[in-house]
Amino acid sequence: MLDLISAFFSEEDAERFKVKRVGECVWVVDGPGGTFYLKRRMEMDLEEKITTYLHRCSIMAELPHPTRQGGFITWSGECGYALYACIPGIRPGWDASNMSAIGTYLANLHAVFMHFPSERVKTWDISLHTMEWIQQCSHSPAIDWARSLMIPFCSQDLEGGKQLVHGDVHPGNLLIDKEGEVGIIDFHRLRVAHRMADAAYFCTHLIIHNGISLPLITAFLKGYGAESPFKEGEVAQFMHHLTMFIIQYAFYLGQADDPFASLSQLTAVSEAVHDLMSPPRNT
């Protein structure tokens, strides 16, 4: 890895770094300049622009480190690599105060994203991706039911309220420092979608890893709504995306023979969030 590290630091400094692999495409790099993460990347132009923009807007986010030759990516054969300075904080614990802080942070992130040009960013076609997972499975009553459920959903992802979203908001990509400030990493899945796609994706992880976890979902949505009030129709958008993501995870996690186990939780979630997310009506 020395040749990769020396693309960002002098060879003398690079020799003093210690490298540890922590994921399939991620390495922790500790040395004279601090702690960094080396990650495989194929393209960095958009990611560098958006993270620089977020820093100018006082949004804490992972920022790529420039190479010695300029630019933000170095190559080894056909693989590209980028280096990121470690942002302060630890992975959030499963408690209401952290969930509220994450909700507030995500609302601010979305507000800033609204003003960033997104013409070059791919649309997040969530229903199509879900259908692709289903189509890979053999026929069974549960699979046939899932296919029939998808038909009325497949045209809804592109309806209204599109903007830039992170596309991978989950606890593993979030950090909270000692002062309670939240930061986010990994911007290589930036997409255009409704902002509720990010919110629903995060809540799907709360459901998958913590059961129904209504107090955590409620705290997250309250934190989001306090910073950026929910608009008319966003309850339906949230539940639509939550349904899609839970179906995706049912098939991804090998629960295709019994997707009802996760989906049965949706009724309780829907009842809990409807009043919370519905905008007040004028009387």
From TrEMBL:
UniProt superkingdom: Bacteria
SUPFAM superfamilies: Protein kinase-like (PK-like)
Domain Aminoglycoside phosphotransferase: 27-225
InterPro entries membership: Aminoglycoside_PTrfase, Kinase-like_dom_sf
Cited Pfam families: APH
Protein's recorded name: Aminoglycoside phosphotransferase domain-containing protein
